[in-house]
Specification:
mainly alpha, about 0% strand
Length: about 425
């Protein structure tokens, strides 16, 4: 279990229970991404809902791409609404309720239910992504400038343990059945149990955490329906303001390398089954262990980031990703693939928590929530491009997953080049020109 960051990492007046409550938002939503997007439901979609159709991987990535496109449209509006009315907790309650209810709905999707599955998957993914974006807005309110990396890493580490708990429950449930998603007859009850548990963990942890966490921001009174106008105007401002330009460059870097991260997260279980021949039980165990290494990576990286700085620490995580891609593409044995998976865990924890802390460090003063709105758009654009690029590669290469994972490495290499152009020594001093209020 990760330790609570020391008091000097927190802003004045922030209590330890609030830190745990904020981190528990990551804990609550991680079960959804682990079970639905990474470990269980995606493989169920390919093997059961689409009956191993050769285009199933492409269809899966298309559904997720559409959902992330919806998130990109809604994220600035939701963020502006939360700022206008100091309503981050209100938005998060709705996101928790919608994602939990939609996940229960997915439990009733079986063979041939493509359109129902697609609609519920898109709905739950939009709610999950909105939850992740809006909860990040609390980071600048509770962490001191010198503790951003440590606190972000703490939240992400605790979040991975939430995914681990949900996976353990799923593994126990699926392990009780004689047929582990091996055929249509026994697949749906097994999947339903795993999804009920996922929804239950999200709701049971997420709602109490929001009751404890305090909203420290004041209502801004901005015209939230003009959020996109302000976003475009602010993005142009990032290009011309010498203090804000580092954030713009960082967001471009994140949007590139996060595309590779999104592809790996979304398609890890499919790769394990299609290339390495893993069954569902092995796949869940693999992702379970990866969640442990990801938690360690996020927690350890937080300390490293506060000591080495954002550029060097993020560069380490991207080099880990490049190494993971090479090992995964060349893996011929189960042992080699396990090595690649755990490299992915370390890199995933460090690169995701590190990006959140780096954005908080470069956010213009007085416009932190707006900066995280840009971060959300960059991450979800990457979530469209990465899995879609992987799916198109498999479709054009006769389902060659090794080639697809190798091509994913290009995102990390380009991201590393862009990272070198981010001047982290310049810090934003003035708020962005926000436009109409």
């Amino acid at each position: 279990m990760p330790e609570t960051p020391p008091q000097k990492s927190l802003r004045e007046g922030v209590s330890a229970p609030e830190v745990w409550a904020w981190a528990s938002l990551d804990f609550a939503n991680s079960g959804y991404t682990t079970v639905v997007l990474t470990a269980v439901f995606n493989a169920y979609f390919v093997s059961v809902v689409m009956a191993n159709n050769p285009q199933a991987t492409l269809v899966w990535t298309l559904i997720l791409s559409v959902s992330y496109g919806l998130v990109m449209l809604s994220a600035p509006l939701l963020g502006a609404y939360a700022d206008a009315f100091a309503a981050k907790r209100r938005v998060l309650r709705w996101a928790t309720a919608v994602c939990s209810a939609g996940t229960v709905g997915l439990a009733f999707c079986g063979p041939g239910d493509l359109w129902l599955t697609a609609c519920l998957l898109a709905l739950t993914n939009v709610a999950y992504a909105s939850h992740q974006d809006v909860s990040a807005g609390f980071l600048s309110e509770i962490a001191s400038p010198g503790g951003l990396g440590r606190l972000s890493g703490f939240g992400w580490a605790w979040g991975y343990l939430g995914g681990l708990l949900t996976l353990v429950l799923s593994l126990i449930w699926i392990g009780m059945a004689p047929d582990v998603l091996g055929g249509e007859a026994g697949a749906q009850p097994l999947m339903a149990g795993a999804l009920f548990m996922t929804a239950g963990v999200f709701a049971a942890v997420g709602f109490p955490a929001l009751w404890i966490l305090q909203e420290r921001s004041e209502p801004t009174g901005i015209a939230w329906h003009l959020a996109w106008h302000r976003l475009f105007r602010g993005w142009r401002g990032l290009a011309h303001d010498p203090f804000a330009r580092p954030l713009r460059r960082l967001l471009l870097c994140i949007s590139v390398y996060q595309a590779g991260v999104a592809a790996v997260i979304t398609l890890a279980a499919i790769y394990a089954q299609q290339v390495m021949g893993f069954d569902m039980r092995q796949t869940i165990l693999l992702v379970l262990v990866v969640n442990v290494t990801a938690s360690l990576g996020a927690a350890g990286f937080g300390f490293l980031q506060d000591r080495l700085g954002h550029r060097r620490s993020l560069a380490v995580s991207l080099l880990l990703w490049v190494g993971m891609v090479i090992v995964a593409a060349r893996s011929e044995t189960v042992e080699a693939f396990w090595l690649a998976a755990n490299l992915a865990g370390l890199a995933m924890g460090s690169s995701q928590s590190g990006a959140r802390a780096a954005v908080a460090a470069l956010a213009p003063r007085g416009a932190e929530s707006e900066a995280f709105g840009y971060w959300g758009v960059a991450v979800h654009l990457a979530s469209v491009l990465g899995p879609l690029a992987y799916g198109v590669t498999t479709a054009l290469s006769d389902n060659d997953h090794r080639l697809a994972i190798l091509m994913t490495g290009l995102f990390f290499l380009v991201g590393l080049v862009l990272l070198m152009r981010v001047p982290f020594d310049l810090r934003a001093a003035q708020p962005l020109e926000a436009g109409p209020r």
